[in-house]
Design brief:
0% helix, mainly beta, seven-stranded mixed β-sheet, 33 strands
Length: 467
Amino acid sequence: MASASEGSTNSRLTGRDPPGRPPQDGYGVYVYPNSFFRYEGEWKGGKKHGHGKLLFKDGSYYEGEFAEGEITGEGCQHWALSGNTYTGQFVLGEPQGHGVMKYKAGGRYEGELSRGMREGHGHLVDADGQVYWGSFHKNKQHGRGRMVFRNGDEYEGDWVQGQRQGHGVLRCANGSTYEGQWHRGVFSGLGDMAHCSGVVYRGIWINGHPVARATRMVILGPEVMDMVQGCSLTLTVELQQDNGEIATSEDGRVLEISAGVRYVQLAAYSDVSFFRVDDGHMRTPIQTPFGFQCIPYPLTSPTSGAREPGAALGGAGADSAVPKEDPSGLPMTRTRAARCPEACQRVEQGCAQFSDVRLGPPPPGYHPILFLDSPLEGGGRPGSPEPMRTAPTAQDPPGGSRPDGVATTEPAAAAAFPGEYVVLVRDVTAPPFLGHTLPTAFKHLRVLAKGADRRPHIPGEGPEAPR
């Protein structure tokens, strides 16, 4: 702030300061001719010098040290227009050096200033309660600094003209952490994020988004996997990018495996089983990408270390985990320690594996309906297939038959009946990584009866049964 101009009038009075002119030395009060300034304080040689108070007509004021007519030294200035107040060092009428600025809108700055602007090292608390410690240039964060945001997030690193730019570390209030490159306030360049859900991404970011992020899950293996009744298999799940490449930059997503059984009403006979479900156990069917719906079905594992058959039958490659076969063409048995399958697995370098996946027996309320496509197997006359009949159950009417003429049976062993099933893998990462949950992955599974050497006949697929 420039110093107030000195008024001057002619006077021949001696022995005291002439009226209308500023005092020469000592203490005095002077109102400037333009009436905008009023000074009360010490004088030396007709100039403000020492301690004094300069009042402005708009209500602003300065109180503190003067030197040779200029505001220089320690003092306090209040600006009526903005409502801000500064206490600290001044040079030639402007805040310069170290001082404290209190803002009417809220907030406070303590640190170095130059020509009235924040310059150098300082500590700023803004109107929202956000706190910054570090370097400033032309009133903005610039250089190295640390900031605690209103939501509890904390950033420490490089700043350029008030924005996070360069290298820095962000520690979020929810537990997530990012360390890497920034540009104009967002993740940009090479960086690592450890998400609060346990997901870790290491790689390139552009405009705040991970470049090699997973967008879908794929269960490896043939389009339709065939397995023998009662056996287990190992499934590998890949997280893939839009271009089909494995998202090896991601670790830690939580995937959950479940199963379903095909939910249909057959118009013809088949050697696969479907289920009648009690009203109290019925759930909303799930639409699959295979053109049919399924209802939930349980997964289980062996309860002992007994020998058990291998996982899958023909048509499988390296991805389907097929055991070696004996000369008869059936999978060789293998011994495996008893353990419950883990319903959830964490992803490592874009992949997850579920071992000992097996279908259990039908749950309570699920009643299998068995069909035969061979008239001789069913005991009927040739060329006229009839439903297979079984011993009556508690749910069947007397005589072991049902009004619709279709026999039912309850499982005798802890294994799924032959038929069509679906394996589902869901992304259950919580909270979702960057707010995005991957779509559910499906795998079509067909279960064959023990000793079968061919796929079951599904009505509408392949040759029809003889008439």
